[in-house]
Amino acid sequence: MNIVLGATGTNGREVVRALLGMGERVRAVVREPSQAVGVADDRVEVVAGDLTQPESLERALAGGSRLFLLVPVSLTQADMELDALRAARAAGIGRVVKLSAIGADPLSRGHFSRAHGIAEAALRQSGMGWTIVRGAFFYSNLLFAANAIKGSDRYTGHWAEYPAAWVDPSDLAAVCARCMVDPGQAGVTLTATGPAALTNAEVCEALSRVLGRRITYVDQPPKEYEQTLTAHGSPDWYARAEVALGEVVRSGVAREVTGTVARLTGRVPRPIDEYIRANAAAFAH
After folding, report:
1. CA angle 103–206–195, rounded 5-degree value
2. Quick one: which of 130, 65, 62, 126 has its CA closest to 94?
3. How far apart are CA 183 and CA 9, in angstroms?
4. What is the pLDDT of residues 82-92, one digit of tens each?
5. pLDDT tens digit string along 105-152?
6. Quick one: CA dihedral 122, 125, 130, 135, positive or negative?
7. According to the model, what pLDDT value does residue 38 have?
8. Scanning 39, 139, 241, 281, which has the fewest C-beta atoms within 10 Å of its C-beta?
9. Quick one: pLDDT band at residue 6, thresholds 50, 70, 90?
């Protein structure tokens, strides 16, 4: 049985869809089953499981063989993933596919990179089978800036002219799903990206091409960007964590473009223009 944590989230929902497309059966673990409308299917067993209540996870994972692991962005992200791994081991899960991030490092000063790095290290030492898929920046992250783009035709960032790889969440999910069902991908760490590394200015060029109007990139120094985030309601820890991602980009680690999507899915990764076109309504005036 394939078990997907966070099955109603952006990535979890796509992993469920990808597994169903392969003819697999899925158990979707969600906090509130009555709200799991997006994953409803005869081949999907929806069960309750709360990442903040580890004992509920053991019940949800019982009888499963393969687990997709990703928890929500939070201050306790690493702890939740460790609790999930403990529950998976106690439930007898044979293999875990963890969706991680480029730049994952347990010694990182950045919250997201450190949290993913801690979970990666724990998974490798857990005694369970494992595959780690490090994702590039999600195209769907642009939706968080949709109101600003819609209202001012501006996109604000904080890593100047440095390029970073991006990826469509559906391509990333397809890689994760393939890793769950393919024993040949066990024990490897993969990086999944789209077809190009882009500067934020180039992202704005893509937005301009597709939307038919000029979208201007506004670069802010990291501290100013942190203040912008908190001024718009982000918690302090989250603003610092977002700024720390800029250090990953500036290091050059995030610019690598890989062939992982094509190799594991048999299709070329979706370019950013196609994603923007499919979601153009979100950015429309």
Report:
1. 45
2. 65
3. 26
4. 999 999 999 99
5. 999 999 999 999 999 999 999 999 999 999 999 999 999 999 999 999
6. positive
7. 65
8. 281
9. confident
Query: Burial letters for 5-30: b for 16+ Cβ neighbours within 10 Å, e otherwise?
Result: bbbbbbbbbbbbbbbbeeebebbbbb
Q: What average pLDDT does the structure give for the chain?
A: 95
Is residue 117 a contact partner of residue 189, using CB atoms and an 8 Å limit?
Answer: no
Per DSSP bridges, beta strands 95-101 and 137-138 are unpaired
Q: Has residue 93 been placed in a domain?
A: yes
Q: Which residue range(s) make up the domain with 19?
A: 2-136+169-192+256-265
* pLDDT tens per residue across span 65-88: 999 999 999 999 999 999 999 999
- pLDDT category of residue 33 using cuts at 50, 70 and 90: confident
> Residue 42: what pLDDT?
78
Number of domains in the chain: 1
Q: Which residue has the tokens 């994702």?
A: 135
The encoded tokens of residue 163 equal 């390029």
- By residue count, the chain amounts to 285
How far are the Cα atoms of 113, 261, 276 from residue 256, in angstroms, in the given order? 17, 13, 22
- 221 assigned to some structural domain: no
Beta pairing partners, 48: 30
- Note whether residue 162 is domain-resident: no
CATH of the domain at 116: 3.40.50.720
DSSP H helical segments within the chain, as ranges?
10-21, 54-61, 77-91, 111-124, 146-152, 169-181, 200-211, 222-231, 236-251, 260-265, 272-278
Tokens found for residue 91: 């439930």
The verdict on residue 205 lying in a domain is: no
Question: Are 112 and 72 contacting, i.e. CB atoms less than 8 angstroms apart?
Answer: no
